[in-house]
Every structure is written in structure tokens, then in C-alpha cells.
Design a protein that fits this description.
Elements: E1 3-8, H1 12-21, E2 27-33, H2 37-44, E3 51-53, H3 56-62, E4 67-70, H4 79-87, E5 91-93, H5 102-114, E6 118-120, H6 128-137, E7 142-150, H7 162-165, H8 168-171, H9 174-184, E8 187-195, H10 199-202, E9 211-218, E10 223-229, E11 238-244, E12 247-251, E13 255-259, E14 264-268, H11 273-287, H12 297-316, E15 320-321
Parallel strand pairs: 1-2, 1-4, 2-3, 4-5, 5-6, 7-10
Antiparallel strand pairs: 7-11, 8-9, 8-15, 9-10, 11-12, 12-13, 13-14
Helix pairs in contact: 4-5, 5-12, 9-12
Bound molecules: nicotinamide-adenine-dinucleotide.
The site of nicotinamide-adenine-dinucleotide has 21 residues, from helix 1.
């Protein structure tokens, strides 16, 4: 079955997703909406048969779509999701699902009431290495996790603003929070310390912290510490290290490295996790079988709850219990 898809947002990641979708069979990129008609039409002009619109309602009225991809900055969520839920159109939404927990929680209620197919862009779950780690963890006792998102500051203008992105932990490190939940289980308490060391002094308009570390107690009794910074001049470590009774498992974007007592194995990813996420979502839209979607909206809201609690903890200087 051929599917017509539309996009909300015309930025860097919309282009990234379009480039992947265009390589898939029976997927037609049909519509774009953006903050201006001009931007939407410019994006549409790159794809045969696509149309640009100046808003979500105009897009949904003007082109019949089977699914929509929402790729907007964290502070811009809400209107598109509400429109799609109302019309019962499945959507794939980029992480994070918002800058707070109130909006995602309210949207989730409506999504559940409609039993709408959703998928969130937590692509680390779809890595071969993650799936291998999950099967290996079945034979091991997990003690603790150490996670990292160390790098520089992305150049998109909204990222540096607390009320635009929610800050690095909510916007970026959310991938590692999600990977932690996926491999280590649910969290019960978070305690965070954030600081502003460099970026507000060297760049205009920076209101987000640029260093942070978050300690998390898990329901299993395991513990984790996830740290991030965006002060580096180049790239840094990104990943999650799992400390088990049989050695250390290091999950990164490229591979799983498993260091035992006297052995080291490295399993490199063979497939593209973003493409796997698209395939799972589009299969669900075609057939109603959602079993391949590893991050439905409902699950992503739990990841968001941890990231938002971390911000609250850093602001309050006290641990926060998760409901
Ligand atoms: N999964 C990943 O690995 C990954 C990687 C990069 C970005 N992302 C996510 O994708 C999202 C978009 O990032 P980007 O890099 O494309 O940003 P971007 O700044 O390049 O593009 C954002 C686009 O959204 C548009 N926009 C803003 N408010 C809007 C609104 N209310 N309605 C419609 N359009 C609106 C902007 O005009 C722009 O076209 C972010 O949430 C980001 O976290 C995910």
C-alpha cells in the first residue's frame, strides 16, 4: 500500500528524514507546513508532487495524508499533535516530546482515547547493538550505568534558550535517558546538579546550563549517572556504559563493546536505526501492527518525565521522586 506522508517543520532533520523515506518503496512525500508559506513551498519544491502550506490545518485540509512527521523544536509542540489526534492521523514525532511534562501528558490522554498510532524518534533503541545488549543483559546482573552526551553547542537558534529547547538534558541527552530506561528499567528518583561555565560568556543569548550531571535510582536497585556538556570545541563521548557482574558493556552510536574478565568483543551496527524506526512506523500505519514500534508516545513520556524531573531537581537542589 502506497502511503502519502507530510512534514511539520522544514529544518535539518526534516531533510534528513525525507532523504531516508525517499529510498523506501511506496512512500510519497506529499506535503510540508512551516512557520511561513515561503519556507514550506521551498521545501516542497525539492520533492516531486509535494505541496507547501503555512500551517497544519491548511496542510491537512489541502492534502490527504496517511501519516505525518513532526520535526519542530521542543517549544513548538502542541498544535500539530492536537490537529492530528483530532483527525485520527498517525504521527511520528521527533524527540523530545516537549519542554515540560504538562503538554505531553495532556496529549497522551487524547492519543490513548483515540488509540492513535504514534512513534517517537528515540532511534538508539533500534540499533543492532542495543538489541544485542538487551539479550545479553538477560544473563547478567546489572549494577550501574554511566551515560554521556559530551560535545559542542548545536547552532540552531532555539537550542541555546531554556524556553526553546528545555536545555541539553531534555533536548539531547534524552536519547541516553531513554536508552537507560530501555536497558536498565524504570527510574524512581533523580538528583541533578547543573552549571553554566562557558557558553553564556562566549555566545549571545545562551540561557541553558552547559554542564550537568544527574544521578538516578532505578526501581531494580541499580543506579546510574548521566552527564552532559556542550562546552567542547569538538565532539566528545556519547553513549551508555553498563557495569555488570560479567563485565562492562559500552553502547555507542557505532557499536556494543563488551569487556569481560579476559575478553573484549565488539559488535558493530549493521543497519541504520533511523531507517528501522521509519519501517516500523510505516508498517504499523499500513497494517495496524504496532509491535515493531519501540518508542510509542506513551513510552516516550516516561523518558520525558525523568528529564523534566532532573531540571526541577537542579533548580531545587534536592532529589525528586518520580510518580
Ligand atoms: N533523533 C535525532 O537524532 C535528532 C537529530 C536532530 C534533531 N532532532 C530533533 O528534530 C527536531 C527538529 O530539529 P532540526 O534540527 O530539524 O531543527 P531546525 O531548527 O533545523 O528546524 C526546525 C523547523 O521547525 C520549524 N518550526 C518551528 N516552529 C514551528 C511550528 N510551530 N510549526 C511548524 N514548524 C515550526 C522551523 O521553522 C524549522 O523549519 C528537534 O526536536 C530535534 O531535537 C532529532
Amino acid at each position: 500500500m502506497s502511503l502519502n506522508v507530510g512534514f511539520v517543520g522544514t529544518g535539518g532533520f526534516t531533510r534528513f528524514h525525507c532523504n531516508l523515506l525517499t529510498q523506501m518503496d511506496d512512500v510519497n512525500i506529499r506535503a510540508f507546513c512551516a512557520t511561513s508559506l515561503n519556507k514550506a513551498e521551498r521545501a516542497a519544491s525539492e520533492w516531486d508532487g509535494a505541496q507547501g502550506y503555512d500551517g497544519i490545518h491548511a496542510m491537512l485540509d489541502g492534502t490527504k495524508l496517511d501519516a505525518v512527521y513532526i520535526c519542530v523544536p521542543p517549544m513548538a509542540h502542541g498544535e500539530a499533535e492536537r490537529a492530528l489526534i483530532e483527525r485520527g492521523i498517525p504521527f511520528f514525532v521527533e524527540k523530545p516530546v516537549g519542554i515540560d511534562l504538562d503538554l505531553p501528558s495532556a496529549l497522551l490522554e487524547s492519543i490513548q482515547a483515540k488509540k492513535l498510532i504514534t512513534s517517537v524518534g528515540y532511534h538508539f533503541r533500534y540499533m543492532d547493538s542495543t538489541q544485542r545488549a538487551l539479550s545479553m543483559l538477560g544473563e547478567r546482573t546489572l549494577g550501574m550505568g554511566l551515560g554521556y552526551w559530551m560535545g559542542g553547542m548545536p547552532r540552531v537558534p532555539w537550542w541555546r534558550k531554556q524556553d526553546g529547547s528545555g536545555g541539553q538534558f531534555i533536548e539531547q541527552t534524552t536519547h541516553i535517558v531513554d536508552l537507560m530506561r530501555y536497558t536498565m528499567g524504570e527510574a524512581v528518583e533523580v538528583y541533578a546538579a547543573y552549571g553554566s561555565r562557558v557558553m553564556h560568556l562566549v555566545e549571545e543569548g545562551v540561557t541553558t546550563p552547559d554542564v550537568g550531571t544527574v544521578t538516578i535510582k532505578l526501581a531494580s536497585g541499580a543506579v546510574a549517572t548521566l552527564s552532559n556538556t556542550c562546552i567542547l570545541p569538538g565532539g566528545g563521548r556519547i553513549g551508555l556504559h553498563l557495569y555488570t557482574d560479567q563485565g562492562v558493556m559500552e553502547l555507542t552510536k557505532e557499536s556494543l563493546k563488551d569487556t569481560g574478565k579476559s575478553t573484549v568483543f565488539e559488535y558493530r551496527n549493521q543497519t541504520n536505526p533511523y531507517a528501522c524506526a521509519h519501517e516500523a512506523f510505516l508498517h504499523a500505519v499500513r497494517t495496524g501492527d504496532t509491535s515493531g514500534i519501540l518508542s510509542p508516545y506513551e513510552d516516550a513520556v516516561k523518558t520525558q518525565a525523568i528529564a523534566v524531573a532532573a531540571l526541577r531537581s537542579a533548580q531545587a537542589g534536592a532529589p525528586i521522586r518520580l510518580a
